[in-house]
Amino acid sequence: MAGECDLALADLIHRAQSGDCKCQFELALRFKGGNGVPLSAEKAASWLKLASDQSYAPAQARLGWCYAEGYGVQQSWHDAIKWYRWAAEKNDSFAQYHLGRAYARGDGVPQSWENAAKWWGRAADREDVDAQALLGKCYEEGAGVAQSWDEAINWYRRAAMGAKIAPLPVFYVKSAW
């Protein structure tokens, strides 16, 4: 995702202003991280909205996060769930993970372990290690799925094997984005 529009800043801004959704997304990431531009939650959310309106799933997923956290926009679970759902339906694992988390907590949707496990399962199939670990926990406890030690161990093992040792960039760490 990051780097899909790897251009000099002036070119990036020009292409983003011209409507290139990948460049709009990249510019949003730069404003979120202060990478070559001043930190600005509002500008990050604004560029994400432009890319999201073009149905660019990575931007929709991060815009959902902005609404969930009140980052650069008024906090709104209604809008967070809307953007997460649209991106999740396009197989964005970040959105699938966060939609699962919303169902587990009952944030903006009725609490449902079945739906949490469903969305974490989709993200887990896309190699999201956090979703794999949470899906393992669901199988261990029988939360939203039939309890199964074999499935729990399978998902825990997959999560452990896929975990990265090196720290991830700030815009990939789920708690930070």
What is the structural class? mainly alpha
Summarize the helix and strand pattern as letters. Answer: HHHHHHHHH
The number of domains is 2
| Beta-strand proportion | under 5%
CATH architecture of the largest domain: Alpha Horseshoe
Principal-axis shape equals elongated
Number of helices: 9
Query: Main β-sheet, in a few words?
Result: none
Percentage of residues assigned to helices: 55-70%
Mean pLDDT: 91
CATH class of the largest domain: Mainly Alpha
Low-confidence stretches: 166-177
Your description of this structure?
With 177 residues, the chain is mainly α. It has nine helices and no strands. The longest helix has 14 residues. The two termini are 14 Å apart.
Secondary structure: elements and pairs:
Blueprint: H1 9-17, H2 21-33, H3 41-52, H4 57-69, H5 77-89, H6 93-105, H7 113-125, H8 129-141, H9 149-162
Helix pairs in contact: 1-2, 2-3, 3-4, 4-5, 5-6, 6-7, 7-8, 8-9
Give the structure's gist in a few sentences:
The chain has 2 domains: 1-73, no CATH class; 91-166, Alpha Horseshoe (Serine Threonine Protein Phosphatase 5, Tetratricopeptide repeat). It is built from 9 helices and no strands.
